[in-house]
Design a protein that fits this description.
Layout lengths: L11 H18 L4 E6 L5 H4 L12 H20 L7 E10 L5 E9 L8 H4 L11 H10 L15 E2 L2 E2 L33 E3 L2 E3 L9 H7 L3 E5 L6 H8 L15 H8 L4 H8 L5 E4 L22 H12 L1
Antiparallel strand pairs: 1-3, 1-8, 2-3, 2-9, 4-5, 6-7
Helix pairs in contact: 1-7, 3-9
Length: 323
């Protein structure tokens, strides 16, 4: 059996380490409070203004990587300095790439003051803002935080599987937020009859049932798809911690031998955007506080290394102990 060690960035053993770090945080600090997914917006002015005539954003992956790195650093500074959700006890994030190459980062936050179910609506919103009151935020949410539409409106949407949306959209109307046991609460989504907003996207009427949960401050600051979820149930914690550190996409194939190196090389699916990120040596993971990994073993189960110099003497000493 050939093993791909944990020192190799991106391998299965490498991705297993931050997962265990996340579970260490859970054992020490309890469940995380917020699960945030921040996706790069290729229409950011910082990207568009640097394109040459006739170029698209996907032609300049170096620009996208550098701009997104700056945005992630800015977001983590706002989050960890207590500017938005209060003081943060610990955090971790992982940068990933979808198969079409668009960067996104998964973030877990543990807050000093836990968010109560009654205050979820203050932190997270799943409704369209009023265009008359806040036209800027309305346009941001309308263009970045609407799912699909899919279902009977668009059966060929990428999220569709067996004629159903894998993301469970469209959601149901709700007059108030309800906490459940499946990990995420059911956020308030008021119907048009109860004051909900309706907009039009691609000649389709879209209401609050299609809105992805967001935080108004983050959306207004970064003008991007930023999904903010409240971690409600302990049952979902292990799934969330593994999801955050699941690694990048891979191709599907089959192998007969137990060669992890060959399996990784054959199944690796790497986009040009990820390649640029790795070439620039930008971090894939970040977490605080640091977790120290201890090499433990059973009694008399420690590893022993033989060299040309100490091998004869070591063998003789072992034989003496056995006799």
């Amino acid at each position: 059996m050939v093993v791909l060690p944990s020192s190799f960035t991106g391998g299965s053993h490498y991705m297993h380490k931050p997962t265990q770090d996340a579970m260490t945080y859970v054992r020490h600090f309890g469940r995380p409070d917020l699960f945030i997914t921040f996706t790069c917006n290729p229409k950011w002015p910082e990207i568009v203004d640097l394109l040459n005539q006739g170029q698209k954003s996907h032609d300049r992956h170096g620009i996208i990587a550098r701009v997104f790195r700056v945005k992630v650093k800015h977001m983590m500074k706002l989050l960890t300095k207590g500017c938005i959700f209060g003081n943060v006890r610990c955090h971790m994030y992982t940068v990933e790439w979808q198969k079409h190459g668009l960067l996104h980062v998964h973030i877990l936050l543990w807050l000093e003051i836990k968010i109560s179910p009654e205050s979820i609506d203050v932190v997270i919103c799943a409704e369209l803002p009023d265009s008359n009151i806040d036209p800027a935020l309305y346009e941001i949410i309308r263009t970045t935080m609407i799912h699909g539409p899919c279902g009977h409106i668009n059966k060929s949407s990428p999220c569709m599987l067996n004629s159903k949306c894998t993301k469970k959209y469209r959601r149901c109307f709700r007059k108030e937020t309800q906490t459940g046991e499946d990990g995420y609460p059911q956020y308030r989504r008021r119907s048009p009859e109860n004051g909900g907003i309706v907009t039009q996207i691609k000649e389709n009427n879209v209401d609050n049932r299609w809105v992805v949960p967001y935080n108004p401050v983050l959306s207004r600051t970064f003008n991007a798809h930023i999904n903010v979820e409240f971690c409600n149930s302990v049952k979902s914690i292990k799934y969330i911690c593994k999801y955050v550190n699941k690694g990048t996409d891979q191709a599907t194939f089959g192998v007969k031998d137990l060669d992890e190196v060959t399996r990784y090389e054959s199944g690796r699916y790497i986009s040009s955007s990820e390649a640029v990120w790795r070439i620039l040596c930008f971090p894939i993971h970040d977490r605080f506080p640091p977790v120290m990994h201890l090499s433990v073993h059973l009694e008399n189960g420690q590893r022993i290394y033989f060299t040309e110099d100490n091998a004869p003497s070591t063998k003789s000493s072992i034989l003496k102990k056995l006799h």
